[in-house]
Amino acid sequence: xxxxxxxxxxxxxxxxxxxxxxxxxxxxxxxxxxxxxxxxxxxxxxxxxxxxxxxxxxxxxxxxxxxxxxxxxxxxxxxxxxxxxxxxxxxxxxxxxxxxxxxxxxxxxxxxxxxxxxxxxxxxxxxxxxxxxxxxxxxxxxxxxxxxxxxxxxxxxxxxxxxxxxxxxxxxxxxxxxxxxxxxxxxxxxxxxxxxxxxxxxxxxxxxxxxxxxxxxxxxxxxxxxxxxxxxxxxxxxxxxxxxxxxxxxxxxxxxxxxxxxxxxxxxxxxxxxxxxxxxxxxxxxxxxxxxxxxxxxxxxxxxxx
Length: 306
Ligand SMILES: NC(=O)c1ccc[n+]([C@@H]2O[C@H](COP(=O)([O-])OP(=O)(O)OC[C@H]3O[C@@H](n4cnc5c(N)ncnc54)[C@H](OP(=O)(O)O)[C@@H]3O)[C@@H](O)[C@H]2O)c1
Description:
Layout (H helix, E strand, L loop, with lengths): L1 E5 L6 H10 L3 E6 L2 H9 L3 E4 L5 H8 L4 E4 L4 H5 L3 H19 L5 E7 L22 H11 L6 E7 L2 E3 L7 H12 L1 E5 L5 E6 H14 L4 E4 L3 E5 H12 L2 E5 L4 H5 L3 H4 L8 H7 L8 H7 L11
Parallel strand pairs: 1-2, 1-4, 2-3, 4-5, 5-6, 6-10, 7-9, 8-12
Antiparallel strand pairs: 9-11
Helix pairs in contact: 1-8, 3-5, 5-6, 7-9
The protein binds NADP nicotinamide-adenine-dinucleotide phosphate (NAP).
């Protein structure tokens, strides 16, 4: 299959593209800079130079391909507090991808996040059948699912907020560790009982590849190897590694302590993967978060620049 991959120079693509190539697929990767192009070419993929801000170019690259995996997202805008701009740019690109694939039955697998269900007030683990709100990234997710009615084999993989491995350079595990280093304490919000799911990069990547090959149109999948780890446990393990205290951060200090992460850190996001495992046969095989804390360079590498 000729597969167009957006976000081809990012974290998840570092596992998705090699897996696709090893399975015999021909990959065309989107790159918006020389550095990104070199990264993509280094995986053995062909390069399409372009930007999400140019939907025509994105659609033009997708049209001759047999399928698309959409991973691009402007996390820099998210970090600088401009989530609506990042969501809007992604939506324009998704519309272009949809137009390019409409009526073909070709697969489009788009990334989203499990956190979209954390604000849905479910009161139980979120399932693959649950949907988030109409706006933000959940709105983009809904737009992907709607492409099923236009003859696209569209599906969504919801990625857990902590996706970890030696390939992770700027993910939220590294952000939590950087905040703990900077502040001298490993904080958790309130009583720290809220849960975050986690997944190993290669397990998450494998789910994208399974979805590309087998996901029926209009389906959502959950890539959480661990369905919910309490923030207190995560903070405690970070504290042990850094030799500092794990402490509760009261609600009125969460913003000051966690900065841009404050809008997510207190969310409770237990995530079921039962349907994903049963229907697609997804079975995570790689190390869990705390094993990667022990063996990857999370506590020895320089902190990321955010
Ligand atoms: N990794 C996680 O922990 C996690 C958790 C939840 C959800 N997700 C979702 O999974 C997807 C992939 O995540 P990731 O961790 O691989 O992200 P990442 O490492 O930040 O990579 C993002 C990719 O998007 C590209 N990109 C950003 N803005 C672009 C633009 N305007 N035009 C073209 N390309 C652009 C980046 O290119 P450059 O290299 O040029 O910057 C990079 O290739 C995203 O939708 C993300 O939100 C990831």
